[in-house]
Design goal:
This protein folds into two domains: about 260 residues, Aldolase class I (TIM Barrel, Alpha-Beta Barrel); about 60 residues, Non-ribosomal Peptide Synthetase Peptidyl Carrier Protein, Chain A. It is globular and about 55 Å long. The strands form two sheets. Strands 3, 4, 5, 6, 7, 8, 9, 10 and 11 form a nine-stranded parallel sheet that branches. A two-stranded antiparallel ribbon has the order 1-2. With about 325 residues, it is α/β, with parallel strands linked by helices. Helices cover about 45% and strands about 15% of the residues. Bound molecules: flavin mononucleotide (FMN). The site of flavin mononucleotide has 23 residues, from loops.
């Protein structure tokens, strides 16, 4: 069991917010393999307040897509609170504040990972969200802005003081982006600094990696991001390991996905494609699925030419035929 405020999860892992990736189809596939909590991609609070169609689409969900976390991006309390008003009409279970996005067009506005440089602003934003939200509030942070200013423990203390239900730490600085290995020692230092649950993010690519990260950090839960690309089976692997005290590393290594029988992968691809077309429509649904085709077939022998054709496929029939050819 893992408790996020009043929300009880049967297992201590979740699907990360991923811009351009963790849409409803992606989440529904993850849920089929036992993912107990998933997050929307980051949603700009100001755009949400304006209720523009493209932004509202991020909030589309279904009863199978619960519990659901909505991640907000912003730095002005009034925009964040207005976003909460708009969210009142939607079903969701957790609000997460993004203090982790390293992209320049976000950080130059003082949002995302730039908030790591302002623990007091973080305190004010989280306090406002906690006061007004009807669900638990979490915050996703980085280890710091850069290697000279690693301050995740200090930021986490302010986040805890503001009343957040948990803090998620991506163990890389903003300047590291997604490169190198996530630093387990920073996550461990956060765990030692606060009493609220700590969720570790970074490099959860297999059950074996998950076991190592849990051991090294002492974290309360794990967040799966790139490890879920083309590999929803990772949630099943993590769940099975829970069933036997986390000891089941055998057969769940990083090469498991590569070794998976294509006969097992194809129906999942077909379902993901169908969900994508349902959600995004026939044109964008197929275009969005192109990258998923590449992820699902990573390591599949002789699939190179099919992958090249998939990234140009533009109709549902064309994409279905490519899956069939695998
Ligand atoms: C394509 C992509 C999009 C991402 N978008 C978001 C996002 O919207 N919000 C966020 O907090 N983190 C985002 N992240 C970061 C992940 O949630 C995660 O913290 C990071 O990838 C580290 O985990 P990993 O090493 O297991 O991939 C994104 C990562 C990727 C690869």
């Amino acid at each position: 069991m893992f408790a996020l405020g009043g929300l009880l999860l049967p297992m201590p892992f979740m699907l990360a917010p991923m811009a351009g990736v963790s849409d409803l189809p992606f989440r529904l596939i993850a849920r089929e393999f036992g993912c107990p909590l998933a997050f929307t991609e980051m949603i700009n609070a100001r755009a949400l307040g304006l209720k523009n169609d493209k932004t509202l689409r991020f909030l589309r969900s279904s009863p199978l897509d619960r519990p659901l976390g909505v991640q907000l991006l912003g730095r002005e309390p009034e925009f964040l609170l207005h976003a909460l008003d708009v969210l009142a009409g939607y079903p969701f279970d957790v609000i997460d504040l993004n203090a982790a996005c390293p992209v320049h067009k976000v950080t130059r506005k003082g949002e995302g990972a730039a908030l790591m440089r302002e623990p007091e602003t973080l305190f004010r934003l989280v306090s406002a969200l906690v006061k007004h939200a009807r669900v638990p509030v979490t915050v996703k942070i980085r280890s710091g802005w850069d290697l000279d200013s690693v301050n995740a423990p200090e930021a986490a203390k302010r986040i805890e003081a503001a009343g957040a239900s948990a803090v998620c730490v991506h163990g890389r600085t903003r300047s590291q982006g997604y490169r190198g290995r996530a630093d387990a020692s920073v996550i461990k230092a956060v765990k030692e600094a606060v009493a609220i649950p700590v969720i570790a993010s970074g490099d959860v690519f297999s059950q074996a990696a998950a076991a190592r990260i849990a051991e090294e950090t002492g974290c309360d839960a794990l967040m799966v991001a790139r490890g879920a690309l083309g590999n929803p089976w990772i949630f099943d692997d993590l769940a099975r390991a829970q069933g036997n005290g986390g000891a089941d590393a055998a057969g769940c290594g990083p090469h498991d996905a590569l070794a998976r029988e294509i006969a097992e992968v194809k129906p999942v691809m077909e379902k993901h494609l169908a969900l994508s077309v349902d959600h995004h429509g026939p044109v964008t649904g197929v275009i969005n699925f192109r990258k998923c085709f590449v992820w699902y077939t990573r390591g599949v022998r002789d699939a190179r030419t099919l992958r090249v054709r998939a990234v140009h496929a533009s109709s549902l029939d064309e994409m279905r035929a490519l899956i069939d050819e695998l």
